[in-house]
Amino acid sequence: MRLARIAHPGGVAFASIEGDGDDAQVLEIAEHPFGQPNFTGKRWPLADVRLLAPILPSKVIAVGRNYAKHAAEFGHEVPADPMLFLKPSTTVIGPNAPIRRPSGVGRVDFEGELAVVIGQPVKNVPAARAASVILGYTIANDVSARDLQKSDGQWGRAKGFDTFCPLGPWIETSIDPADLALTAEVDGELKQDARTSDLVHKIPELVEFVSGVMTLLPGDIILTGTPEGVGPIEGGQSVSITIEGIGTLTNPVEDI
């Protein structure tokens, strides 16, 4: 199932998307998408609604240096344990919403990532049970103010600006995330090209590790890390991240 959050003629709702291309239909879900969804009976062509961020998490937990080649391109070693940092919920935007690049922060980079969406309140989940607490998977762009990341040491400011976590276009609930193709393009030029099988710390391990630190709530996001090939983005450009079996997340960039 593809779960989305949409703006439609009557307001905002969660929905399931059925079909592809011009035939795609959006079926409204009552209340929330967790558990067995209840449908209201309302439906629209996908072209008649606007896709929003598919979920509004209480927190975004990101994993740094989780692809060996990405760690190497910045001269770092892969950490023995997952390296965690947080992005505020206010960083989240949806498909086609602009990434707003603040003035005076220097280089700002895109980072294409597979995102895990948690489906229930959990704490101390063993890796063997991780799949049972995951609602599904979506695409993320862990936008980063690279100069601030280097100068601050801490990553909160560099990763925490409003609009610095595009998510979407929807949550796919029925894929195996172990070996998916991930690509990122800037203005149509290929920048990242990797597979999720290259993750150093795999998804079950990440769920166990993160839930051992903090309680995870329905809708919380774990960003699994970005592969090599990250680079700067400027106002007027467009970033598209594609993950096999999910789709493509595209966002323009604006200088502010």
Helix content: 10-25%
What is the rounded distance between the termini?
A: 37 Å
Category from helices, strands and their pairing: mainly beta
Number of helices: 4
Low-confidence segments: none
Q: In angstroms, what is the radius of gyration? A: 17 Å
- Return the string of H and E elements: EEEEEEHEEEEEEEHHEEEHEEEE
Number of strands: 20
Write down the overall mean pLDDT.
96
What about the largest sheet?
12 strands, mixed
Strand fraction: 35-45%
> Which term fits the overall shape?
globular
What does this structure look like?
It is a single chain. By secondary structure, this protein is mainly beta. Helix content is 11%, strand content 42%. It has 4 helices and 20 strands. It has helices at residues 68-73, 146-152, 156-159, 203-213; strands spanning 2-8, 11-18, 25-30, 38-45, 50-51, 60-64, 83-87, 92-93, 99-101, 108-110, 112-118, 134-141, 144-145, 165-172, 181-186, 189-195, 221-223, 231-232, 238-243, 247-255. The strands form 3 sheets. Strands 1, 2, 3, 4, 5, 6, 7, 8, 11, 12, 14 and 17 form a 12-stranded mixed β-sheet that branches. Strand 15 (181-186) and strand 16 form a beta hairpin. The radius of gyration is 17 Å and the shape is globular. The model has no long low-confidence stretch (mean pLDDT 96). Keywords: Hydrolase, Metal-binding. GO terms for molecular function: hydrolase activity. Residues 59-253 form the Fumarylacetoacetase-like C-terminal domain. Residues 1-54 form the Rv2993c-like N-terminal domain.
